[in-house]
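tool_call: predict_structure(chain=1)
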Amino acid sequence: MKASDLFVACLEQEGVEYVFGVPGEENLDLIESLRTSGITLIVTRHEQHAAFMAATYGRLTGRAGVCLSTLGPGATNLLTGIAYAQLGGMPLFAITGQKPIRDNTQGGFQLIDIVHTFAPQTKWNDSITDGAVIPRSIRHAFKVAEAERPGATHLELPEDIAGEEVGDMRPQGSIRTRPPIADESAIDSAAEAIASARQPILIYSAGTNRETCAQSLARFVEKTGIYAVGTQMGKGVLAEDHEQSLFCMGIHQHDYVHTAIDEADLVITVGYSPIEYPPYVWNPKGDKRIIDIDYDTTTPDEFYSPEQELLGLISSSLDRLRSRLIEYDFGSPRFARLREYVSEKLHIGHAAVDYPPSPAYIVDQVRLTLDRYDIISLDNGIYKIWFARLYPAYIHNTVLLDNALASMGAGLGAAMAARLVHPDRQVLAVCGDGGFEMNSQDLETAVRLQLDMVVLIVRDCGYGFIRWKQQSAGFTDFGMGFGNPDFVALAQAYGANGIRHTGEQTLSTVLTTAFEQPGVTLVECAVNYDSNSELSNEYHVPPKVLDHSSD
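tool_result:
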């Protein structure tokens, strides 16, 4: 058996469906082995996009997505997507080619030490110098990538190793492991602390984006009456029409939802990572009592130092805590009024429309178009904050956004992966013109894959998020503008459909038409960002909403 055949057999043993990547000279043996396998090779137009797709596949399935590149520039192109997976907690396995270990006649041409380059952005990575270690190396790579907290792993496969004979070797058997559960004394201690609290509140985050976590979280808040707030990457884990939901912390300022945290004397963080939402925003004085429920220990700072940690399977911790708090009810008429007030302020319904429309109008129109289980994938730009703040989400992993690496250019690839995983759902990519143009070439990949999906381009001819920050800092508007192609014509050139929103119809009508067309449809929509100044404000709830005298 050739080593590359063994490598692919190990991927098949792990249940790999897709390999996303760009071929090169140094991985031709592996490409040939994939050709005769049951794995689908999806050739993208940029390695970065391959890694974005693999990471999102991992996020949605819990199984490591696989991406592939050659050596040198192909490998360095993967690095942004690898960091996207690592910081975002998405399981990913990256494969790169390399020059022959022996008889390298090309010297230093394209030669980079990829293993050491990738080391800071992976949970584990290595180079295969002997085909005999392939089974154990791949098993280890998948095991580490998928273990909580998930992240990225990497193996380098040199050209001569890929082509060598390894004899009659077999893949190692793959096993599904479950994280350990928190010990009983820790559960008892946490339950006592919660029971003694006057007004606890719960913050859930990206680590709860698992179906079992979502179910356990809903049961916990229903039985205890504790209200819950989500971070951007936890959005939808608790349905935002749930009676105990206080929606999402969408901006890095004091928003209406932060009033509930102000009122709380105990904060329960669940699956929380300071990477994606800084604790100084919701705990500016660093004085909140905190209980952390997660798979692994946290890294404390002056604004986030839990007094107790429940380490282990999150769903188990929540279920066992619930059973110990069955006699307690933290339901609060004040928080019920707060929920009603915040809902009226944030979920504004049919926003007034001018042309070009405001971001709030765009959010509203997208929500009108999509069903409960449909998926939006947000690239990075100022519109992402508007969606995080205003878009009601009801199911976990139906709002795909990245607030960890927060890389531009990921929105299209994430949507493509979502459509592969969920062919029964409508999928909408929402991209700014800046982010879309970073990987617009992979529109051809979406067309080639015959994906039924819609891409909404929010056009302002500039780097809108950075312009907003520039203006907020009092700097002169400089260096933020650029030109754009005719996006409708660009879509058609790639073989996609193209529609331009002109204001003659509602955006929801245009998007509905786009979803009715087979294949990939791009919708171009201009945006007026004059209202961005609202995101720099602090929002507070009137005292009468939380007045005890009305209870």
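agent: The chain has a mean pLDDT of 94. Proceeding to next step.
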